[in-house]
Amino acid sequence: MVIVALGIMIGLGFYVSPQNELAKADAIVIISGGETKERVATGVELFLNDWAELIVLSGAARDEGISNAVMMRDIAISLGVDSRDIILEERAQTTHENAKFVAEIIKSYKMESIILVTSPYHQRRAYLDFRKFLGSDFRIINRSATDSAWRKNGWWGSAWARHLTSTELQKIIYSNLLFTTNDV
């Protein structure tokens, strides 16, 4: 039983955090959220290593201040990205909206592939939402940023990581029940 339970726990970690082999894409899409600086650093590293020619930054303001997308742009520029290589999406307040509004940008630029960057525990849900808006033929490459509290091989060892994982699993189920491909 212990081996089965451990296998299930490890499997859940790998399920919520899918990773793909890197390949060149049209853009790197970074969505704001937990540990946003790490998400931006990962996306910028990919960009500077020529995995894509554009970066799309998505996220609205939490309050009356600047949007998360603008904050991420400032970080990206400080890390060496030219502002002309950045596209901002400043309306999204949820993962579903990140996918919806970024899909509009992707379609307007006639892109065929992206590298999707978010936190590891958030990767599956983000991927599923982007898949709904971009369709099954669109190439989405999953690449998570590092996270200080969450590891797919040991998420069960921390109360906070257990909370993140269970919350993400609930949101994945909810999102799949609520938003079918007919809703997009």
The total of helices stands at 6
Oligomer: single chain
Q: Which ranges are low-confidence, i.e. pLDDT below 50, for 5 or more consecutive residues?
A: none
Level-2 CATH architecture:
3-Layer(aba) Sandwich
In percent, how much strand structure appears in the residues? 5-15%
Q: What does the model show?
A:
The chain is of the alpha/beta class and about 180 residues long. The chain has a single domain, classed as HUPs (Rossmann fold), CATH 3.40.50. Helices cover about 45% and strands about 15% of the residues. It is built from six helices and five strands. The chain has a five-stranded parallel sheet with strand order 3-2-1-4-5, sandwiched between helices. The longest helix is centred in the C-terminal third of the chain and has 20 residues, at about 160-180. The protein is globular. The N and C termini lie far apart (about 40 Å). The mean pLDDT is about 90.
